[in-house]
Structure formats: structure tokens, C-alpha cells
């Protein structure tokens, strides 16, 4: 069975490389083909990589609290680039300050993200979501 392809990166001016590496290794060990763009990734870089690799999912990570600003318009750009329907996941400390996660999740879903993970979410939780959304057994 062909491996599902993921694009992983840390969006905007965020440089939290350790979490990015942990996610890369967790997703790779779980059997996904991961293209890791590293840190300080623009929306356009995610989209370009997704087009080049025919990715199934784009995973956006952010820890510095400005993910909401960095992610605005991302779904529209994906659609315009021909990536309509690609799964978009976002996770980390994606907003400034302490906010009710249900409100944060709703705002990101309204922006077109399929899954939203709060601070402290384990990689296993994201892997389970990937398997469910990509219809992978096991």
C-alpha cells in the first residue's frame, strides 16, 4: 500500500524546531511519507510542497501564539492552487493568551481547517486523526 503523504512545518516567524522534529519522527514511524519544511514556513511554501509531492495532508504547527494570523486565508490559497479538499490540520499554541479551546477550534474550522489540536496534544492523537481521515486501518 502506498504511503500517505504529509507536509509538515512551523508557520510564520515561529522557530520551535524541537516540536517539529518530534512530530516528523512520530509521523514517519507511524508509516507516513513526511516532507518536513522545518520552521518559518510561509503558506505558499506549504502549498508548493503539497503540489510537488501530491500530498494528502498539510500539517501546520505553531507555538508562538500567532497561528491565527498566520493561517488566515490558507484554505482559500489551497483551493486557488488546485488543492481543493486537501486535509488541513493545525496544532500547538495557536492563539495569543489563554482562550477557551472550543472557541479557538471553531474559529480555525471556520477558516477551513479540518482538525485543530490544542497545546499539549500528543502525536498519537494526531496520528489517530490522520488514520481516521485517510481511512487507514491499523
UniProtKB/TrEMBL annotation:
Keywords: Cobalamin, Cobalt, Isomerase, Metal-binding. One of its GO terms (biological process) is anaerobic L-glutamate catabolic process. PROSITE patterns: B12_BINDING. The gene is glmS. The keyword Acyltransferase does not apply. It catalyses: (2S,3S)-3-methyl-L-aspartate = L-glutamate. Adenosylcob(III)alamin binds at residues 13-17, 61-63, 93-97. Pathway: Amino-acid degradation; L-glutamate degradation via mesaconate pathway; acetate and pyruvate from L-glutamate: step 1/4. The lineage of its organism: Bacteria, Pseudomonadati, Spirochaetota, Spirochaetia, Spirochaetales. Its EC number is 5.4.99.1. Its cofactor is adenosylcob(III)alamin. It is an enzyme of class 5 (isomerase). GO terms for molecular function: cobalamin binding; metal ion binding; methylaspartate mutase activity. Catalyzes the carbon skeleton rearrangement of L-glutamate to L-threo-3-methylaspartate ((2S,3S)-3-methylaspartate). This is Glutamate mutase sigma subunit. Residues 3-138 form the B12-binding domain. CDD domains: Glm_B12_BD (cd02072). InterPro entries: Acid_CoA_mut_C (IPR006159), Cobalamin-bd (IPR006158), Cobalamin-bd_sf (IPR036724), GlmS (IPR006394). HAMAP family: Me_Asp_mutase_S (MF_00526). Heterotetramer composed of 2 epsilon subunits (GlmE) and 2 sigma subunits (GlmS). GlmE exists as a homodimer and GlmS as a monomer. Belongs to the methylaspartate mutase GlmS subunit family.
Amino acid at each position: 500500500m502506498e504511503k500517505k503523504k504529509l507536509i509538515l512545518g512551523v508557520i510564520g516567524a515561529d522557530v520551535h524546531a524541537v516540536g517539529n522534529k518530534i512530530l516528523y519522527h512520530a509521523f514517519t514511524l507511524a508509516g507516513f511519507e513526511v516532507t518536513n519544511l522545518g520552521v518559518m514556513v510561509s503558506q505558499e511554501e506549504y502549498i508548493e510542497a503539497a503540489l510537488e509531492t501530491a500530498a494528502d495532508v498539510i500539517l501546520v504547527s505553531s507555538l508562538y501564539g500567532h497561528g491565527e494570523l498566520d493561517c488566515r486565508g490558507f484554505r482559500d490559497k489551497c483551493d486557488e492552487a488546485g488543492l481543493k479538499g486537501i486535509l488541513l490540520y493545525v496544532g500547538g499554541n495557536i492563539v495569543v493568551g489563554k482562550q477557551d479551546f472550543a472557541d479557538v477550534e471553531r474559529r480555525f474550522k471556520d477558516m477551513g481547517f479540518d482538525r485543530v489540536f490544542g497545546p499539549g496534544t500528543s502525536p498519537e492523537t494526531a496520528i489517530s486523526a490522520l488514520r481516521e481521515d485517510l481511512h487507514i486501518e491499523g
